[in-house]
Amino acid sequence: MTTWSQFTEEAPRICALFLRRHQATGNLCMLGTVRADGSPRISPIEPTIFEDMLVLAGMPNTRKFDDLARDPRFCLHTATVDTMVTDGDAKLFGTVIDEPDEALHARFAQKLFDDKGFDIRGMKFDHFYLADLTGASTVEAAEDHLDITVWKPGAGETVIRKT
């Protein structure tokens, strides 16, 4: 599994842009999953970096988590309203692992309470998905070109300039 620190080390440009956009939207991202019929689904989610893992957890009994239980592939896109993409955008690709460790769940719930006052301590998670990143990309716009940065685990970043 690709840890967050491995991703940060191998893809510093993408990671920095993802974190900047993630923070700018109050942690809101859009999660792409695959429905039972094979069509795509886009859902809002607030991913959290916790103990060197990207956690995709949220409200129980939602269709996005049903999708991930059936097909673990996902795309996570930083939310944007800027059609010119002047702040850039980032996409993370991967699969999820449903982690059953209740001690980890309890630590995560405590961190949510400590950081945001959101109290789910003592509640049982239906799913606790950890992202195993298999790729990432960003788009950054300038006046006369686009820089597209791509990453695959173990390969580092590659910047493609489009003029």
Automatic annotation (TrEMBL):
UniProt cross-references to Pfam families, sorted A to Z: PNPOx_N (PF01243)
Protein known as: Pyridoxamine 5-phosphate oxidase
Gene3D superfamilies: Electron Transport, Fmn-binding Protein, Chain A (2.30.110.10)
Coiled-coil stretches noted in the UniProt entry, renumbered to this chain: none
SUPFAM superfamilies reported for this sequence: FMN-binding split barrel
Annotated ranges, domain Pyridoxamine 5'-phosphate oxidase N-terminal: 27-95
Source organism: Nocardia mangyaensis
